[in-house]
Automatic annotation (TrEMBL):
This is Xanthine permease. It comes from Heliobacterium mobile (Heliobacillus mobilis). The chain crosses the membrane at residues 23-44, 56-76, 104-125, 137-158, 164-182, 194-210, 230-257, 278-300, 306-331, 343-366, 378-401, 408-428. GO terms for cellular component: plasma membrane. One of its GO terms (molecular function) is xanthine transmembrane transporter activity. It is found in: Membrane.
Amino acid sequence: MTLLNVPSYRYGLEDRPPRWQNLIYGLQWLAITVPLIIILGKIVARIHFTDPMAQITYLQKLFFITAVMLLIQVYWGHRLPLVTGPAAILLVGIITNAGSPMDAIYSSMMVCGFLLTIFSATGWFTYLKNLFTPRVVAVILLLIAFTLIPTIMNLVIAPEAEGSPLQHLLFSLLLLLVVVALSQRLSGLWKSTLIIWAMLGGSLTYYLLFPQGPSESAQVPFLASFFRDVTFHVSLEPALIVSMLLCYVALVINDLGSIQSVGKMVLADRMPVRISRGVKVTGLVNLLSGFLGIIGPVNFSLSPGVIASTSCASRFTLVPAGVFLFVIAFSPKLIQYLGNIPPVVIGTLLLYIMCSQVATGLRIVFESTDPLSMDNGYIVGLPMMLATVVSFLPPAVTASFPALVRPILGNGFVIGVLAVIILEHIIFRTEDLERG
């Protein structure tokens, strides 16, 4: 496979830069990937475990599975310069179903990963494509951000950390304003790696403002394998599978959009084949993620900015990043150092990341026909309101729901997705037909 001649790129899709340059490019990709793994991984690890060593082991598995997907995609999947990492939408699924046993949650991910692989291998996506109109896609993108608000709020307030909730809130607002201001003024690689600088600068500032008392840190070896901690038992709950399946619908939309945007940018050939292989690899690796008991990965949409800033479209520049991710996966001591990020900083940066999600969703809405119509208002607004209400229901209320339907009725994202599909394809479709 060859890339069409694109004179604006120093290295094309199939070019191999010199070793030292390839290493530098790989480190740039690594600088983008590591913060996202740490931010999302620490949130999920804290939900599942209170033991610091168990949290580090979870992050080891997450670094490992990200490296596996990255290298398989580069050499066999979509074969594009496209970075991967844990999927934010699966974070939504895990948080909203946190009351379910871990084995049931990750068994559901295994089932969904298997179905995703089958759909991509058989071409069933063509039958589902009409279901995801621009308004449905926009609402799904918005729902991912809005249903994470309770989690972001708890991270920002951080009642268990040094300082008062008000101090944490003020710190978070100031950090967010600084990050947004820098994102508007920086360009090129500095803008692409803004998250890692914000993570480092924010953590340093936090510890200067809120000095931490002496604490006993876990004795962590420098090198250690996590395979001995893989103990998995299949536990299938139909309602939980349905709940996670709707989360995977959003994951597929993200995956397809990322592959298509990068493929278009580098003028890659045989895009239908690349998309089919890329989604198939995503499904298989998510199946493996479920077996390992960790959040599944997805292809990120951050790659076009990196390609534009470096003028390098070679897929082989991601290979060093994948190798470094493997090294980090077997170095718990390094992960311990990387994971010393205050919850307030994690919550603030997650809020910043979700802002781009909201911007993308709103852009799709305003690019549609008659974006300010009442129909658009109901189709977009009602699912958002329902999802927000369900997301803020007290745990005692959701616990009172029947166990069989709790993963559906207690999941704001699922309620929002079902609502927008009903509004788009049943209620307002009927009105459109009557008007016609």
